[in-house]
Amino acid sequence: MSESASTSEHFCLSRRQMLLAGATTLIMTSIPGLVGAVSLKGKRFERKAIAKLSQLKTDEPIEFRYPFDDMLSSNLLVKLGTEGGGGVGPAKDVVAFSHFCTHMGGPLHGAYKGEYKAIGPCPMHLTTFDLTRHGMVIAGHATESLPQVMLEVEGDDIYAVGIMGLVYGRHSNLG
C-alpha cells in the first residue's frame, strides 16, 4: 500500500464512529430544551432598556443599538410567538440578535422571515439563521451562529445585558 493511501485511511471514520456521531447529533438537536441548556460564551455589558413587553407584536421586529451607539451595534428584537433559545418573557419567545452576518458582515436589516422564525438570506452569500435556536446557521456560508443579545425582563421592561458571540467587525466584544 502506498504512503498516501495509508495516510488517508488513518483519517477516515469507521462506520461505527460515523453512526455514533450521527446519533449524538440527532439526540442533541431533537430533545426539546437540550440545545438551550448548552452554555454559550458571552460578555456582559451595561444594562440598557430597549423595549416594553406590552408593546411587542409577534413577528414585528424592533431595531435597537447595543452595546454601543455605532452602526456595528445594530440589532433586532423580536417576539417569535414560539419559544426561542435564550428567550425571555412569559412564553420565552422574545429574542434579540445582531443585524450582521457572521460570514462577511452582510446586513440583515429587513430580512426577518416570521413564518420561518429566521433571518436571512444575507445579501452577500445567502446565509440564513434560525432565531429559535440561538441564531444557528440554517444554510449558507457562515460557520458561526448569529450573535445573540442577552436579555432580562423586569416588570414590563426588556433590558439588553450582554452579547453571546463575536459581532462581525469587532475583535474584542467577547472580552
Going by CATH, the homologous superfamily of the largest domain would be Rieske [2Fe-2S] iron-sulphur domain
Spans with pLDDT under 50 lasting ≥5 residues? 1-9, 33-39
Mean pLDDT: 84
Helix-strand sequence: HHHEEEEEEEEEE
Strand order of the largest sheet: 5-6-7-8
- Termini separation comes to 50 Å
* Main β-sheet description: 4 strands, antiparallel
Coarse morphology: globular
- Strand count: 10
Number of domains: 2
In words, what does this structure look like?
- With 175 residues, the chain is α+β, with helices and mostly antiparallel strands.
- The chain is 16% helix and 30% strand.
- The chain has three helices and ten strands; from the N terminus they run H-H-H-E-E-E-E-E-E-E-E-E-E.
- The strands form three sheets. A four-stranded antiparallel sheet has the order 5-6-7-8, with no helix packed on it.
- Strand 7 (128-130) and strand 8 form a beta hairpin.
- The chain is globular and about 55 Å long.
Write a concise synopsis of the structure shown:
By secondary structure, the protein is an alpha+beta fold. The protein is built from three helices and ten strands; from the N terminus they run αααββββββββββ.
